[in-house]
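CORE FACILITY INTAKE
Project code: CF-77B
Contact: R.S. (postdoc)
Sample description: multi-component assembly, three entities in total
Requested service: structural model of the whole complex
Turnaround: standard
Below are the sequence entries exactly as provided by the requester. Do not edit them.
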Amino acid sequence: MTDQPPSPEMSAPEMSAPEMSAPDTDKLEVFESTGSASKRWVPPQLVIGGVIVAFIVVIGLASLFWTPYDLDKVDVPNQFLPPGSDGYLLGTDKLGRDMTSQIMAGARNSLLVSVVSTIASLIPGVLIGLIAAGARPFPQRMISRVTDIGIALPGILVALVLATSLGPGNTTAIIAIMFWLIPMVARVTIGPARQILSRDFVEASQAYGRTRKFILFRHVLPNIGPLIIVQASVMFAIAILVEAALSYLGIGAQRPTPSWGRLLKEAQPLLDQAPYLMIIPGVSIMVAVIGFNLLGDGLRTYLDPQQTTKGAGV
Amino acid sequence: MVRVLVRAIASLLASAFMGSIIVFLLLRMLKGDVATVILGQTATREALEALREEMGLGAPLLQQYLEWIGGVLQGDMGTSYAAEFDIAHEIWVRVPLTFTLAFASLILSVIVALVLGTFSAIHVKDWRGTWVDILSQIGIAIPSFWLGLLMVTLFAVRLGWLPAGGYVPLTENFVGGVKSLTLPVFALAIPLSAVLVRYVRSGMLEVLDEDFIRTAQAKGLTLRRAAWRHGIRNASIPLVTITILQLGSLLAGAVVIENVFTLPGLGRMLIVAVGGREPLSVQSLALVLMLMILTLNFLMDIAYGLLDPRIRDSGRSAPMA
Amino acid sequence: MRTYKRSWLILSLLMAFALVAAACGSDDDGGSTADTAAAAAEPAEVQELTIAVAQEPANWDYVTNGATAIKTPLLYNVVETLVEKQADGSVAPMLAESWTVNTDGTVYTFTIREAKFHDGSDLDAGDVAYSLEYNRGGEGDITTPFDAVDSIEAADDRTVVVTLTQPSQAFLNGMARISSAVVPEGTGDDIAQGPIGTGPYVFIEWKPDVSVDMDRFADYWGDQPFFSDVTWRFITDETASLNALLAGDIDGVAGILGEGIDRVDEIDAADGFKILTVSGFEISYLSLNATAEIFQDPLVVQAVNHAVDRQPIVDAAFAGLGKLTCTFVNPPNEPWASEYCPYEYDPAKSRALLEEAGVPGLVIPFKYLTIAEFPPIQEVVTAQLSEAGFTVELEGRELTTYIDEILGESADYTFTSLSGPSTIDAWKCPGFFTLYCDPVFDQLLNDGDAAVDSAVTTELRRQAVEMHADAGYLIPIVAKLQAVAVRADLQGVKLFTAGSEFDLGYLTLE
């Protein structure tokens, strides 16, 4: 028995959210026969997702150079201005800080957390997956056991414990997210990697005298590459949601680090008084997550050789 | 067959053992200790040292681990330092709430996913299917705690239909219990059903094209009835698998939701015990949660292995749907 | 086809497993409630009350930990003191029917009233002497009134004699606080699990993370209270507790201190609810570590003091509620209260002082607690310090880690924001958190305590608090306003006469 489940399995641990999936193995064909891209149509999800993600990246990067107001400028007389007020597109918070500036900078922070935690999870996760796929049955089982434990370990616990020693903040959030993602990436990688390993051309390569390492990195890795790219976009989405949840529990980014999740936490007691303070960051999170998920869906469909409508939306 | 079973049990035990070490080591990273919590901010260093001594907080790691795991193996998880309650009993008292929450959300999500997923697959070519897609995308992206907070404001504070938080055990007051769980269950179930609906839909779509559906239609069944009869079979295995796999994240999501609705379940216990620097409680609780998830995986392995010869022979890597 | 059925079988099995678990667990619940029902007194008329409290203590040992969270449900409800402080500042009898003091103020003789403990035993002088000794051996604020105490003796069944080495104003005041809480002889070690007392309510059951349940005590020596069953519910999040109040799940929220303070106006305006406020027993302050390297230069300490503008801090963290103060007088209505304010808000002056000290842009590490009112205080103070030419380095900490780090003589912090119910006496050498030491300041307080004439005490204490404000290591911000949110028809909420209690005995419904 192996531990590769038959179907999609990866999901945000903090809330049931976007799923990560190993594509059906038959679809992997595409990764060997590239070059027919010109014939493909671009799925609408790819376009919509791409536009949303691009928008978030642009406002996030822009906030590094310019925001309408100084991020932490406390201006109590101008507190609780509703969205659309003169000079304040999204209004101001309890201390009179401009919400537009905070949302812009929050985009930057969400991107930072998700990019760092995704990359930091992908590299070890894929490595572990590849090594496991290429290993003999016993070490392979051992690695499977460890990833099982990693998945079963309540990720929230890692975050809570780290927050006591490192203090609440982005570092704590990123490490906690890595604890969640690495075993999942490893698990998602093993199956497709083994499928590739069983192909004829790999056997040919073996016969040709190539080392195991060469085969894993030169044959297997490029072939599961597109799959990894698809997963990465979904991991971005997961990271954004987890960061928000950790901030809600008070163990995510603290001021002056801007964060959508923390804006939600701060707005919570003011829900009756100034509901927009709760709605705006919440919608920002949703839009970002939708953007990354659509991008992932779009890429998956785009890379799907069958290009049938059934792939759309799934 | 026996070999398969023995091997699976052995690996479950090995995982549990490794897991206990990982959890134990993780808890050594906890900064600050229970003596500080008990004495509070007016404590003196001397009083803290004396209390630590008394509680045996400074024992060597290996000794601490062996004492803990030895106790657990005999069913004794020890007592908490400050409140002095029996940890095993405290966990046991909270299991019903967290399990009810998780399984009620699960059942609700599966039902919603089956209905909407089938609907979407049948109407794949028109706007009704598109609407389900859009709803599912939104549902996946909603932070569940945010949804929970909005629902509290609307249904509890504004409309006063449901309580804002707290838990009434179902056995004490059934109606009150159902009311206290309604909002948390929905907050967990909405994002989950948005995930599940996509699997139902794709499972459905795969069969709707196939010949036997056309045959069934030709025999006079409506597309909807044909879809229900045949499509659900096709969608069911990935659905069950994903559902079981989602249990782990559902339990984690419950931690946050229990916090939003102040429900005294396992998740609250985890947060309170970390805040109260109760490593024994946290370790034992984490071990229990890990064991639950590992056991579910184990049962799934066994069940698939025993029931389906095709899977048993080829390993579970074979696509089943 | 077959696999389809099997997969549903697996799911059904899992669900059945869950249901069995749920059923077993609840049986267990049933058992424990049956036990408590037996212990309850027979109710004349059932009147239930549920009050939310934000913090759940680690246990109920008020003798080793002075936290407000411990005292709020217990004081005057479960355990009672020898005497009780009245709203006008006078001292009234409680468990001591009467008392006398000798002419030089060193021998107090208390006559103890007839009363029963919740375990059925009778209160006598032995219990009182035991409890006073026990409290005297505790930790922190509870022990300070005993500083001048030489001996505590039960002269006979009803008489307790306390001999002091010198007169002490703090002693009788302390007997109206938790320091004289009485439990049956020999039960000190049981306090942590819920004390046995003589109060109108019996501590029935503590359900960790959920509630503490109390029942009316049928043999109470005083008038029977209106409510028969009281539940203190722990709701950590003030938003959640206020929501529960508005939704009608609970009857009141005791002590709104954190983020809930922003909603005080909203609750007060809401139909059927009211907010009661009273000047509280907690002062919010900034603390400078007197042993930190950067504060060895008095110019830097002055620069910090001139940088602080109190009103915006109070607006941001306490919704503008509370009494701004530059001196540490707690409670703020003490006779030695002072309007003295040595450092006016002047960021330009701070900059000049830093220049003068040769450290423009000085880096000041600011360690802060990441819960309750502390993040908004940190944000505003950070902005003010930056304005005044400092470079602030933030270090956010979670509660226990925070306390662990800032505590003791080797405290690992430079500058922080705190809040607490202490009195100025806590800053005798080494000062509470500040580690500030000045023998003259200590002498003023000691002389004030030993003075027989209370006018002299008042004068000396005023000098001490003003001198402490001059030193500048402790920067008081505001005497907090205690806010309690309750149903509009709940009457008789008696607020905070001894610090941190929520007296249930006078509550009724309209």
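Facility notes:
- Residues 67 and 101 of chain A are 5 Å apart (CA to CA).
- The longest helix of chain A spans residues 212-248.
Invoice: internal transfer
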